[in-house]
Amino acid sequence: MDDFLKRLPNTGQTDIRLFAAAVSASNHGVVITDHTQPDEPIIYCNKAFESITGYTNKEIIGHNCRFLQDGDNEQEGRRRLREAIKNGEHCQVEIRNYKKNGRMIWNELMISPVKDRDGNVTNFIGIQNDITRRKEAEDALASEKQNLEERVLERTEDLQESEAYLASIIETIRESLVVLDEKMRVLSVNDHFCRFFKVAENDIRGRVLFEHNDGQWNLPELRNLLINVLPNNNPFEGFEIENEFPNIGRKLLVLNARQVTLKGKYQNRILLAIEDITEQREIEQRKEDFISIASHEMKTPLTSIKGNLQLLQRKAQQNNDTQYLSGFETASKSIARLEKLIYDLLDVSKIQSGKVELIFSKFNFQQLIIESVNGVQATTQTHKLVMKGSSDIEVTADFGRLEQVLLNLLNNAVKYSPTGKEVIVHTCILPEYVKVSITDTGVGIHERDHKRIFERFYRADQISEKFPGVGIGLYVSNEIIKEHRGTLWVESQEGKGAVFSFTIPINR
Ligand code: ADP
């Protein structure tokens, strides 16, 4: 037992001795100072104090508690302690103390004055608790919280930035945008919408789209499409409407609509995008009209030139005028090219206006292949056209139009394989269909162009300067094959030749 306890008188002091034993055994550090002596010397400390601080009883008796500060004096807790001691008051603080080995500990310290009968403070009892772990956990928590707050702040800023970014895109976009809820009420529209339809946002926001502006949007087909967007997640694209709009007149619009999905949020909203294609369509129409009129107008003088040329050619033959004959031959070839171009352009116009009419007849497919191959073979000395497979079957189709397709494909095969020698025409008879494949060993076609070469006036970039052409042969051919309810496609790699194939039904 501690010396201090031994020194306590025995008789009549049992209770005190019991309390003293309890203090000694406590897990909390207990220290007692003598307030009647100068500089508040320590007169007692228990075992727990020794193990918390690392100092032994002997080392600290008589010292002021400030040695635990180890020079770390600028602490608010310490100021409060001094104040309490000076005023003889109770006080509780959390301060940094230092163990004998120099390690910092957080000390939860409570000091209480002990007073004599006259109320004079004789001692201070200090109870201390090492709360370093708790403090560290608290600090870690605080710093984690701070981190989290910073991250939330950053994220919020990011979100605000992307929201502003998105808003600026939506506002600058040259397309009208409308957000609808599931009841087709307008939740918002962008600036372009207001400017284009000449309405104020307030006039439309909150209203059912179909009721807006005397029902200008109340078109049965559009209504049907829109109400089906959400229930079945049925987006639509490229829906054209032509309508008379109150403030802006007749317009041709193309509409796209889809469900808005933002990581599962806003699932019950529809984004409707409206593009005005009135002007674009008019320009396209004018272009089509020009091509159609120009090619028509060229046809008549060309027929006259051709007729007269043939007449002159015959005369030159009769007179055996070799000098003129070769000139006439070159002119005839040029006229044939011009004639083909004009007829192709006329075909394009016909296709555009849906006026291509096929003339079906029954014929032997082999005859078509032979005639087409011979026709192209006659124009080339560099390439050999080789027929393979079997094609001896009666088909019902448009002989003239299919010949046009074959001539296009064969001429292309020769044109785009300048160093090639052979073009293979393979025909096979399938159940209900005949298939023709034309294989060349020429420049080939990049994958990205496989679909586009069938578009009007499209020519692959890298070849357009090297080879003459206008990019309508495949477009016309494709339309002819489609009219026959067949398909035309290409398989090719750049630099490795191309295989163009088509199928058509044997019977109409
Ligand atoms: P044109 O030959 O007058 O350009 P086409 O419509 O017949 O028009 O062909 C469109 C484009 O397809 C061509 O410009 C060319 O890029 C590509 N093409 C067609 N046939 C071949 C082929 N056999 N080999 C490589 N490219 C081809």
TrEMBL record:
<keyword id="KW-0067">ATP-binding</keyword>
<dbReference type="InterPro" id="IPR003661">
    <property type="entry name" value="HisK_dim/P_dom"/>
</dbReference>
<dbReference type="InterPro" id="IPR013767">
    <property type="entry name" value="PAS_fold"/>
</dbReference>
<dbReference type="GO" id="GO:0030295">
    <property type="term" value="F:protein kinase activator activity"/>
</dbReference>
<feature type="coiled-coil region">
    <location>
        <begin position="127"/>
        <end position="154"/>
    </location>
</feature>
<dbReference type="GO" id="GO:0000156">
    <property type="term" value="F:phosphorelay response regulator activity"/>
</dbReference>
<dbReference type="GO" id="GO:0005524">
    <property type="term" value="F:ATP binding"/>
</dbReference>
<keyword id="KW-0597">Phosphoprotein</keyword>
<dbReference type="InterPro" id="IPR036097">
    <property type="entry name" value="HisK_dim/P_sf"/>
</dbReference>
<dbReference type="GO" id="GO:0007234">
    <property type="term" value="P:osmosensory signaling via phosphorelay pathway"/>
</dbReference>
<dbReference type="InterPro" id="IPR036890">
    <property type="entry name" value="HATPase_C_sf"/>
</dbReference>
<dbReference type="InterPro" id="IPR050351">
    <property type="entry name" value="BphY/WalK/GraS-like"/>
</dbReference>
<dbReference type="InterPro" id="IPR035965">
    <property type="entry name" value="PAS-like_dom_sf"/>
</dbReference>
<keyword id="KW-1133">Transmembrane helix</keyword>
<dbReference type="InterPro" id="IPR003594">
    <property type="entry name" value="HATPase_dom"/>
</dbReference>
<dbReference type="InterPro" id="IPR001610">
    <property type="entry name" value="PAC"/>
</dbReference>
<protein>
    <recommendedName>
        <fullName>histidine kinase</fullName>
        <ecNumber>2.7.13.3</ecNumber>
    </recommendedName>
</protein>
<dbReference type="Pfam" id="PF00989">
    <property type="entry name" value="PAS"/>
</dbReference>
<feature type="domain" description="PAS">
    <location>
        <begin position="15"/>
        <end position="88"/>
    </location>
</feature>
<dbReference type="InterPro" id="IPR000700">
    <property type="entry name" value="PAS-assoc_C"/>
</dbReference>
<keyword id="KW-0418">Kinase</keyword>
<dbReference type="Pfam" id="PF02518">
    <property type="entry name" value="HATPase_c"/>
</dbReference>
<dbReference type="InterPro" id="IPR000014">
    <property type="entry name" value="PAS"/>
</dbReference>
<feature type="domain" description="PAC">
    <location>
        <begin position="91"/>
        <end position="143"/>
    </location>
</feature>
<keyword id="KW-0175">Coiled coil</keyword>
<keyword id="KW-0812">Transmembrane</keyword>
<dbReference type="GO" id="GO:0000155">
    <property type="term" value="F:phosphorelay sensor kinase activity"/>
</dbReference>
<dbReference type="InterPro" id="IPR005467">
    <property type="entry name" value="His_kinase_dom"/>
</dbReference>
<dbReference type="Pfam" id="PF00512">
    <property type="entry name" value="HisKA"/>
</dbReference>
<keyword id="KW-0808">Transferase</keyword>
<dbReference type="Pfam" id="PF13426">
    <property type="entry name" value="PAS_9"/>
</dbReference>
<keyword id="KW-0902">Two-component regulatory system</keyword>
<keyword id="KW-0547">Nucleotide-binding</keyword>
<keyword id="KW-0472">Membrane</keyword>
<dbReference type="InterPro" id="IPR004358">
    <property type="entry name" value="Sig_transdc_His_kin-like_C"/>
</dbReference>
<dbReference type="GO" id="GO:0006355">
    <property type="term" value="P:regulation of DNA-templated transcription"/>
</dbReference>
<dbReference type="GO" id="GO:0016020">
    <property type="term" value="C:membrane"/>
</dbReference>
<feature type="domain" description="Histidine kinase">
    <location>
        <begin position="293"/>
        <end position="508"/>
    </location>
</feature>
<feature type="domain" description="PAS">
    <location>
        <begin position="162"/>
        <end position="207"/>
    </location>
</feature>
